[in-house]
Amino acid sequence: MKLRHKYINDFLSAFAVICLAFPLSGSATENDPGAWITFSTTDPFKSDGEDSRWHYWFDAQARYFDLGSGVNQWLVRPGVGYELGGSAKGWVGYARFRTRNAAGDVADENRYWQQIDWNAGKWNGGRVSMRVRLEQRSVSVGDDTGFVFRFMAKYARPIGENTDSNLVIGVEPFVTLGDTDWGGDSGLRQNRVSIAFSRRYSDRLTIEAGYMNQYLWRDGAENRSNHFGVLNFKVKL
Amino acid sequence: MKTQYGNLSPHVRSVSAKAAYSKAARKKVVESRAKLDGVTAAIKHAVATGKLGSGDKLECAQRAMEARLAAAEARLEALRKSGEEEWEELKDELEDAWDDLSRSINKVVDRIKDGS
């Protein structure tokens, strides 16, 4: 009975997040299916055979928008972090993006980023983690540098008694801090809401699979709601 | 300067929080093993001198102590091998395992004192 109650709570938490996401999808919204595949790894650097306070981060992603249209995006994102105290870590990094549109034109992007993440505590049998990230984006098709502030909150809760399996729910709004000649006006430009199941298969591999809604507010065009199937391979090197 | 992650404050330690915690937990395992051996020896002595009668309940309590120490060791090993996102979750499990072990040792110590 207790276990059943736990599942109901999981379901209600997930449902609440999905409800928060979907009122945004009004009638003047273009809906597209997509796929988002991620490989990520992060761990401490070793010092004298022990884990140091310095950490590395690397992720590579392949994103396919509006499946069949040929629109896709590839990126690699390395970073270095330092344990600030408690559970907080500070990060700096770089990302290189390559985006292909439906006509086959390619645009490259250099992105520098700074981030602080931390564990925000426990809630309802799970853990809440948060991160804030500031990005400076330069795109080959424009002259301006775009400044973007992102805030992510993630909730992970073990499924049943098995701590190797987790329900993971996330929300991440993006705020553009200034107008650019390639990215439109400043303000809330994007929101991501996701729900996934995470399974730890070994000491080195965790796979997360689920759904992510990416809502984009666009100037002079219909807003877009991308519905992604997401697959994330988290690897410990 | 003692913290949840070991002896040094977060501003002084050079190793990661996970490494500091693992090291402190490993030390705790060794101390617990010594304590458990001490309790086992005290039981044998009490039984040999007739202060304590040997019985199923006592054996059962002893086995419970051993099993809980083994569970704590297994959780520490899992924590050591865990990734960045999982280790804090496993830390909570290890803390629960310490509580279980501590309770089972106290139970046996009380039994020795009571002579039951």
Description:
The complex is a heterodimer of chains A (237) and B (116). By secondary structure, chain A is mostly beta strands. Chain A is 8% helix and 68% strand. Chain A has one helix spanning 2-21, and strands at 29-47, 50-64, 72-85, 88-100, 106-123, 126-139, 145-159, 162-176, 187-200, 205-216, 223-235. An eleven-stranded mixed beta barrel of chain A has the order 1-2-3-4-5-6-7-8-9-10-11. In chain A, a hairpin with a 2-residue loop joins strand 3 (72-85) and strand 4. Chain B is mainly α. Chain B has one domain (17-114): Four Helix Bundle (Hemerythrin (Met), subunit A), CATH 1.20.120. Helix content of chain B is 74%, strand content 0%. Chain B has three helices and no strands. In chain B, helix 1 runs antiparallel to helix 2 and helix 2 packs antiparallel against helix 3. The longest helix of chain B is centred in the N-terminal third of the chain and has 32 residues, at 17-48. The radius of gyration of chain B is 17 Å and the shape is elongated. Classes of the chains: A mainly beta (237), B mainly alpha (116). The A-B interface holds A 42-44, 47, 50-53, 55, 83, 85-87, 119, 127, 129, 156, 158, 163, 200, 203, 206, 234, 236 and B 10-11, 13-19, 81-86, 88-90, 93.
Strand line-up in the sheet with most strands of chain A = 1-2-3-4-5-6-7-8-9-10-11
Shape call of chain B: elongated
| Share in β-strands of chain B | under 5%
**What's the CATH class label of chain B?**
Mainly Alpha
Q: End-to-end distance of chain B, in Å? A: 41 Å
Number of helices of chain A: 1
Helix/strand/pairing category of chain B: mainly alpha
Number of helices of chain B: 3
Oligomer: heterodimer
Order of helices and strands of chain A: HEEEEEEEEEEE
**Beta-strand share of residues of chain A:** over 45%
- The helix-strand sequence of chain B is HHH
Tell me the CATH superfamily of chain A: monomeric porin ompg
